[in-house]
Amino acid sequence: MVSGFDKASLRAGRLSERDALSPDDRAEKSRAICAAALAGLDVSPGMVISGYYPIRSEADIMPLLEMFHAQGAVVALPAVIDRETIVFRQHDPALDLIKTGFGTKGPPTDQPLIEPDLILMPLSAFDHQGNRIGYGAGHYDRAIARLRQKELNPRLIGIAFACQEVAEVPAGPYDIPMNGVLTENGLFWF
Fold first, then answer.
1. Where does residue 186 fall: left (phi above 0), alpha (psi -120 to 50 degrees), or beta otherwise?
2. Fold of the domain spanning 4-189
3. Is 180 helix (H, G, I), strand (E, B) or coil?
4. DSSP string spanning 7-49?
5. 89 with 77: CB under 8 angstroms?
6. CA spacing 20 to 30 A to 43: which of 1, 49, 121, 135?
7. Does an H or E element contain 5, and which?
8. What does the domain layout of the chain look like in residue ranges?
9. pLDDT in tens, 98-146
């Protein structure tokens, strides 16, 4: 059984490291993450890619999503529906974003809900076995489980700075491992 305390302490420690990065350092590392994604991910026209709008000290991948959109991909951002549920709403970079809960922004509510082929997701901590610690609400794990119930299997790529890596994430039975992680040091597959 995984102790919530173990995850909570790892989350707090890695978020503290991420928060300690200067805004200029975060911006530079975010650009490196975007470049690594462009070099390492095969994106085809019509592919549905979900990213996120950055909050707090998260890596900013919005320029990457705009590049994917320009390449013909269909881009989505998560929207918080309630305390347990996120959905993926189609994002048009020409439209203004609205507040979607938990400090995030996303597409207006009249944009269609779509099911991603690739999910680029923020995280608090990760290990090189593909395990991640999110922010503790389980939104992504439940959303991915719902997609899998529909027999969909999106690729899952964590987005983080290298300082967020830990030796081992204690994984529980409901934790869904990632296929890879993107940091300023490149794209790593598991």
1. left
2. Rossmann fold (3.40.50)
3. strand
4. HHHHHHHHHHHHHHS-HHHHHHHHHHHHHHHHHH----TT-EE
5. yes
6. 135
7. helix 4-20
8. 4-189
9. 988 778 899 999 999 999 999 999 999 999 999 999 988 888 999 999 9
